[in-house]
Amino acid sequence: MNGLSARIDVSRGDFRLHVDIVAAAGRITAVLGPNGSGKTTLLHTLAGLQPVDAGRIEISGRVLDDPAESVFVPAEHRRTGLVFQDFLLFPHLSVQANVEFGPRSLGLPEPARRATEWLDRLDVADLAERRPSALSGGQAQRVALARALAADPDMLLLDEPMAALDASTRVEVRRELRRHLREFTGPTLLVTHDPLDALVLADDVVVLESGRVSQSGTTDDVGRRPATSYVATLMGANLLHAIAVDGLATCTDGTTVAIPDRALRGEVIVVIRPEAIVLHRTPPEGSARNVWPVRVVDVETHLDRSLVQVAGPPDLAVAVTAASTRDLGLAPGMQLWASAKALDLDAYPRSD
Amino acid sequence: MTGKRRTESTPWYLVVPGVVAIAFLGLPLLGLLLIAPWGDLLPELTSEEALQALRLSLITSLSATGLALVVGVPLAVLMSRTRWFAGPWVRALVTLPLVLPPVVGGVALLAAFGRNGIAGGPLYELAGVQLPFTTLAVVIAEAFVAMPFLVITVDGALRSADRRLEQAAATLGASRWTVFRRVTLPLIAPSIAAGAVLAWARALGEFGATLTFAGSFPGVTRTLPLAIYAALDVQRSQAIALSLVLVIVSAVILVSLRGQFLAGMRR
Hints:
The complex is a heterodimer.
Chain A: E1 3-12, E2 15-24, E3 28-32, H1 39-47, E4 54-59, E5 62-66, E6 71-72, E7 80-83, H2 95-106, H3 111-121, H4 137-150, E8 155-159, H5 167-182, E9 188-192, H6 195-201, E10 204-209, E11 212-218, H7 219-224, H8 229-234, E12 238-245, E13 248-251, E14 256-258, E15 266-272, E16 278-280, E17 290-302, E18 305-311, E19 316-321, H9 322-328, E20 335-340, E21 346-349
Parallel strand pairs in A: 3-9, 3-10, 7-8, 8-9
Antiparallel strand pairs in A: 1-2, 1-4, 4-5, 5-6, 10-11, 12-13, 12-15, 13-14, 15-21, 16-20, 17-18, 17-20, 18-19
Chain B: H1 4-8, H2 15-35, H3 41-46, H4 48-81, H5 88-99, H6 102-113, H7 120-127, H8 135-160, H9 163-171, H10 176-205, H11 208-214, H12 224-234, H13 236-266
Helix pairs in contact in B: 4-8, 4-10, 5-8, 6-8, 6-11, 8-10, 8-11, 9-10, 10-13, 12-13
């Protein structure tokens, strides 16, 4: 097939990673899992930093690792662009020299021009002479991406691309990253513990739980039909497809949602975390700009927390404490009002 | 250092032994400065014996540092990267010259490189080369005691360096040699420099091993410390003038290394 196909079985102490993963060329696949689920081990085996005990890794017909055939292509011959969580730019080299590193090592023609081209494509050409220590998190991420892409990889691997960034810059950086990743023609594998990364950046999702794949499919499918409770909580964010104009998004079901970014126009996805929604018995008076009359469909309580499904429009999943569930007397059929502050929502352009 | 509060909470009766310690360390230095022949300093330092010793010390200590760099840095890399070299025996062997009395080091060097030594014997019989009591013997003695400083400093730097930068370089298509040359080496360069300065300082001050293995022949093996010792009874003012040179060199090294260590910490 055109893309990555990997059967990986590798043990490290008590931990065993045993997964089957395919990632199509030109698509972004998110590997979603909690800490300790084997995400880093997965990346290391794919990048050739660690061999598999059994299995086979193949990219577009080229075998990279197969113990049965005694094939192991080491990292330096794999052509996998790995973008590390904390970017790992070489601190002693300028941005330009960092990006030139791959092309030079591989003996590609005109490494300097290649580097300049990639810095330009990622809009960081003006930083070429800087040292990595003088870059912001978002800038360092782009430089790291430029460095990986300049080495002309067959596959792109991203390890927790948002983890090292400030919460305040994440929305913006995620939006940019999506645009840049779209241009890559090979398979892109993005490892993350944040469902938002998967929802916003990826086409396909592979959910990893304690070393095994618990679910995989397109992002929409997995979000709609979570197979395990982990996936359900993880992917529980509310996604509304809408058209945005001047800070107001009109959803396909007719609801309007006030969003924080007034500059955003056209097709958008509005992401509302279940925790960001407040339920009221009477119409709320306050600063929340988004207020919808809703009906309770289902209440599911785990320990001290309840997940309440309400029908609107819009249909939403709402997280409330078990105490509030009791105080409000939440039960299916109840009529309530749901509110959310515009500032608690995220909106991303839908256009690819 | 981190504010007055800590000092205030310290028991006052520690002040007396503390001051005694300062006096203990400071008085000899003060004494040296007080009896120094300041007026005759220049003639004392430019006398033939003094210049000879200075020149010899400079040549041998720099050669010893070079020797330590050429074999010590690769050893440090192996110690930090391979299981065999990281073993306790190699570590003990590298650390031993640090704690070994230098005169014992000299005796051991004689046993190894003397005319009847395990390496010196064949060397003499096959090539007619005799190492003891030559300038080369000085270099060997200095390298023997100085190399641990370099190896331990560089090994420590390699252990605390982020291995993932090397992994990043490998995924970008860099061969092992390229990774070493373009990533590992530049990253530990400050520590190599610091280790080299430490080793050089140790080589410059080497006395016991040199005297035992190389003797004290003017112009051939009589380095600064040996010249100071030789002059002490017959030409005290020259001994003191040469001592001052070593004090100044030590002070400069101390200052330069302090900057180096701070730079290392900031990274």
